[in-house]
Amino acid sequence: MARQSLREKLLDAGFRTIWNSGYAAAGVRDIVAAAGARPGSFTNHFASKEAFVGEVLDRYFTYVSGLVEAALAQDGTPPIGRLRRYLDVITSKLEAHDWARGCMIGNLSLETAVHSEPLRLQLVAIFERWRQPFAVCIAEGQAAGDIAKTFEAEDLADFLLSSWQGAMLRMKVERSPEPLERFKKVIFSTVFAKEPTP
């Protein structure tokens, strides 16, 4: 079996450290110590902490993209059911961390967008890519008459992601699933509802 490279160990340790501590509090020394590496090894693999966090962010988005793909898969479930399935999957993962962790993309958006232009631009690109599969699913629901066509599918996908991030922020503050469940109740009875019949 091939040994895991030091670079991968650092990325794994950084992933965990940033999850637990956030960007500002996750020092390079902490990451190196968590990886069981020697001091100075970090700079042999990464140009800066900012570049390192960019790679951690890419790794996290790959993970999230897998969840999106599985939840929105065209398996005979109507589009509304697939959208709900995604939110329910994420809810179960948030519950596993006692409603305290949230989403790394959202967390880093709050923490780094003001201080790091490269990370801000990376986050912009991630949100653009993130909303696409939701827009496809929503457009399918609109074509079937299950979702009103009042707004473009891409705008609704953007609204879904932005509002869900807000619900997760409230969840972390309250340490409760109530903001998530409230969000789901409202969005599926308003935004993702059929066009009213005349």
Automatic annotation (TrEMBL):
The name this protein goes by in its record: TetR family transcriptional regulator C-terminal domain-containing protein
Question: Signal sequence span per UniProt?
Answer: none
Q: Which domain of life is it from?
A: Bacteria
The Swiss-Prot or TrEMBL record marks DNA binding at 27-46
Q: Which PROSITE patterns match?
A: HTH_TETR_2
Which keywords accompany this UniProt record?
DNA-binding, Transcription, Transcription regulation
Indicate yes or no for the key word Metal-binding: no
Residue span(s) of domain HTH tetR-type: 4-64
InterPro entries given in the database record: Homeodomain-like_sf, HTH_TetR, Tet_transcr_reg_TetR-rel_C_sf, TetR_C
* Matches recorded under Pfam families: TetR_C_13, TetR_N
Q: Which organism is it from?
A: Mesorhizobium huakuii
Q: What Gene3D superfamilies does this protein map onto? A: Tetracycline Repressor, domain 2 (1.10.357.10)
